[in-house]
Write a structure and sequence with these properties.
By secondary structure, this protein is mainly beta. The protein is built from one helix and nine strands. It starts with a helix and ends with a strand.
Length: 176
């Protein structure tokens, strides 16, 4: 009886161990991605890196030559940045939520807090996107990638589908 119990316990441990290995992120999944942001004239206005963390994606951007004021910044659904950047599609929204932090049925996974650009146009921002993943099912680095887009105006955090944020003034493609 004792050897049967030990054998069953060992088999259970091996099964648990196999399940643990299966849940780990495959080594091929992206843990970070970088992009260069350009304006509609093709001028470089910044760099950004996105890093996968356990609770979401950390976005760090060093921006320059942007108009001063408050601007929306979002992750958009397609990794194409042809001016006027409508090629980036709508906000990244794999769950089909409504737009905005103020909407009880929102927000999109690609919705981010507004950025405040000082006079001179240079800014470093660090934003945590808790609903975002780089890889895997519903990740931004799917077959067509995604884009980091800066808008002309602030996001009102409520208007669906894009927060009344105006034209897209800068874009950086996020592709594998």
């Amino acid at each position: 009886m004792r050897s049967t119990t030990l054998a069953a316990a060992a088999a259970g441990f091996l099964a648990l161990s196999a399940c643990s290995r299966a849940r780990r992120a495959p080594e091929t999944q992206a843990q970070a991605v970088r992009t260069e942001l350009t304006d509609a004239s093709g001028r470089r206005v910044g760099d950004a890196s996105l890093q996968q963390l356990p609770r979401g994606v950390l976005i760090v951007a060093d921006l320059s030559a942007l108009p001063s004021g408050t601007h929306a910044i979002h992750v958009h659904e397609t990794g194409q940045c042809t001016p006027p950047f409508t090629t980036a599609g709508g906000h990244f929204n794999p769950s089909g939520a409504r737009h905005g932090f103020r909407d009880p049925q929102g927000a999109h996974a690609g919705d981010l807090p507004n950025i405040h650009v000082p006079s001179g146009g240079a800014l470093r921002v660090e934003l945590m996107a808790e609903g975002l993943r780089l890889s895997g099912d519903g990740g931004v680095l799917d077959g067509d990638g995604a884009a980091l887009v800066i808008h002309q105006f602030a996001d009102d955090y409520a208007s669906d589908p894009a927060g009344a944020a105006g034209d897209r003034i800068a874009c950086g493609a996020l592709i594998r």
